[in-house]
Amino acid sequence: MKAVANYSPYGWRAKIGLIVPSTNTVAEPEFWRVAPKGVSIHSARATLLGNATTESYYKMAEAVIRSAEDLATAEVDIVTYGCTSGSIICPLPELLSNMQEKAGVPAIATAGAVVAALRALDVKKVAVCTPYVDFVNESEISFLNDYGFDVLSMHGLQLGETQAERRGIGRVPPQHVWRMARQADRPDADAIFISCTNLATFDVLQQIEDDLGKPVIISNQASIWACLRMLGLPDRIENLGRLMTDFLAPITTKDMLV
Hints:
Distance between the termini: 44 Å
Pfam families: Amdase (PF17645)
Low-confidence stretches: none
Number of strands: 8
Strand content: 15-25%
Structural class: alpha/beta
Protein name: Decarboxylase
CATH class of the largest domain: Alpha Beta
CATH topology of the largest domain: Rossmann fold
Helix content: 40-55%
Largest sheet: 4 strands, parallel
InterPro entries: Iso_Racemase_Enz_sf, MaiA/AMDase
Mean pLDDT: 95
Shape: globular
Number of domains: 2
Number of helices: 11
Strand order of the largest sheet: 2-1-3-4
């Protein structure tokens, strides 16, 4: 038994623990879709009830910490909170610290993964599009400003006020995401950031980057990239933008924080 104590038939290179908001139906399929050979995905859900408010996001953060503790029992190698708005509204350093303490392994959150991705691409000015309501969009602008990025534009769909609307984000067609990115883009933007892990984007990500002629960062893409690089895995994943093909070096938690 000692010889196979660390063996996993599917996650023999790494096991990623993914925590998603309970209404999210996109992050898990997109993680599974591009997980490299030998990397497995193991998920948990954190409930977000009622209207979207600062208080409801903090309650979800409490559930995230419990989920991180649950994922530790699956012996995952890293835990990630796959929610952009939740990891922007709640203090990122505290989230990462609490998740790591409960899981006993490195932790990331989507907001931090986005920061690390924008820094890897040497982005200073960014155009942003989201499915969110205004208070979340305003929080996102403040967050990106605090981390040193100049937000040139913000295009939001005004979805997510209620739980039903949050489920609806997962039904936005990828082709509409292409149009969102085109609408948000500005000539002097270094990159486009498309926010939300419940927004299906992988079918159009490369097309957006090719058509707009600049790097594109998307929440699930950045989260998967950060997990792999935090684990020291240099896998190059095609058709998911420059981030996934050109930036293969390991990253650390310091790359995600101010």
